[in-house]
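thoughts on my protein:
***
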Amino acid sequence: MSASHHDVSQDKGPAFVGLFVGMILLGAFMYGMVQFTNARYAGHGAAEKGAAVEAHK
């Protein structure tokens, strides 16, 4: 019984590491998409929109 419990606790480590790494990669991907979109539409009033949002606050 203790051996199987030990195996289960060992299996949780890689699972949490995989989840953590996956979240980091997803966050980096989303950040990259935002940067790409901002750069792509920079000439279409993105700067003015950003300034308007800042002034509206």
